[in-house]
Amino acid sequence: MGAPLFDSDYIFGIYEPGGEQIMLDAGRPGWVVFSEAIGHDPDDRTGVDFTPFSDQGLGVICRLNNGYEPDGTIPHSSQYEQFARRVANFVATSRGCKIWVIGNEMNYA
């Protein structure tokens, strides 16, 4: 049997935590989208525990960014390998999330 997906039966949700209690109080646990700036240090093995949300039946999606302006959501191409390792480390040590989005608006200039 596979690992739980930490998903939701509902299509709606919120960006960043803060309003999830409204969905829970209504008996309709939707989605919470998190955005994490993780950098591109391949030796960084830290992650995040999302189980306080997924354990309540909320769907969890996490967007992984290298950083925010001026660093960019993905790093310069010379640092792709380091960023890929950092993403792998973050995912491996995080709990309560199985849906990951890498970067955001890469073509936005």
Summarize the structure.
The chain has 109 residues and is of the alpha/beta class. The chain is built from three helices and four strands.
Number of strands: 4
**Amino- and carboxy-terminal Cα gap:** 44 Å
Number of helices: 3
| Percent range for β-strand residues | 15-25%
Order of helices and strands: EHEHEHE
The shape, in one word, is elongated
Side-by-side strand order of the widest sheet: 1-2-3-4
Gyration radius from CA atoms, angstroms: 15 Å
Summarize the biggest pleated sheet.
Answer: 4 strands, parallel
Helical fraction: 10-25%
- Mean pLDDT comes to 92
Report low-confidence residues grouped into runs of 5 or more.
none
Class inferred from helices and paired strands: alpha/beta
Describe this structure in words.
The protein is α/β, with parallel strands linked by helices and 109 residues long. The chain has a domain at 49-109. The chain is 22% helix and 19% strand. It contains three helices and four strands. It has helices at residues 20-25, 51-54, 80-93; strands at 13-15, 31-37, 59-65, 99-102. It has a four-stranded parallel beta sheet with strand order 1-2-3-4, with no helix packed on it. Helix 2 links the parallel strand 2 (31-37) and strand 3 (59-65). The longest helix is centred in the last third of the chain and has 14 residues, at 80-93. It is elongated, with a radius of gyration of 15 Å. The model has no long low-confidence stretch (mean pLDDT 92).
Itemize the secondary structure elements and their pairings.
Blueprint: E1 13-15, H1 20-25, E2 31-37, H2 51-54, E3 59-65, H3 80-93, E4 99-102
